[in-house]
Amino acid sequence: MSTKKELSPSVCFNFSFFKDFMKELRRVDDNVINRLNSTATQADGTCSEFFKQMSEAYAKRDEAIDYCLKLMDEDLEKKNRKLQEDPDDFEVKNSIFTQESMRQSISNERYVEEIVRERTLQVFKNKCRAFDTTALEK
Fold first, then answer.
1. pLDDT confidence tier of residue 138, bands split at 50, 70 and 90
2. Which of 21, 54, 24, 22 is nearest to 36 (CA)?
3. Residue 33 needs a FRET pair 20 to 30 A away by CA distance; which of 94, 110, 128, 133 works?
């Protein structure tokens, strides 16, 4: 029972929502071992189709991280300008601190991505040995 979420500013500014969004996009990776083990990888197009799904999932995740970081940077810039106007505004200071922490957490998702991709590609390479994966390797 999967609910497709759309990426929106509300997802970006709530880290729990963002993590859930990324988890949904990582389903391809989470199921890679089971899917590859239950499929004849020698069949024409099997590896190619799975590779296409992985590529699309990776692109969506990269886009999500980039989009959220861009939104956060823009919002932080506005808050910093507001703080320059009133350096004693503790509400804005606290908001900036909280948002910078959240931004760092979203930025850290890049490291999670590296680990997930490495693990998935390793399994993929073991099952689809003749398939060229250089397009997904960074």
1. low
2. 54
3. 110
**Encoded amino acid at 80, one letter:** N
| Secondary structure of the chain as H, E, C letters | CCCCCCCCHHHHCCHHHHHHHHHHHCHHHHCHHHHHHCCCCCCCCHHHHHHHHHHHHHHHHHHHHHHHHHHHHHHHHHHHHHHHHCCCCHHHHHHHHHHHHHHHHHHHHHHHHHHHHHHHHHHHHHHCCCCCCCCCCC
Question: Exposure of 90 by Cβ count < 10 A (0-12 exposed, 13-18 middle, 19+ buried)?
Answer: exposed
> For residues 124 and 42, which has the higher predicted lDDT (pLDDT)?
124
Amino acid at 29: D
CA of 41: how far to CAs of 27, 56, 84, 102, in Å? 19, 20, 60, 41
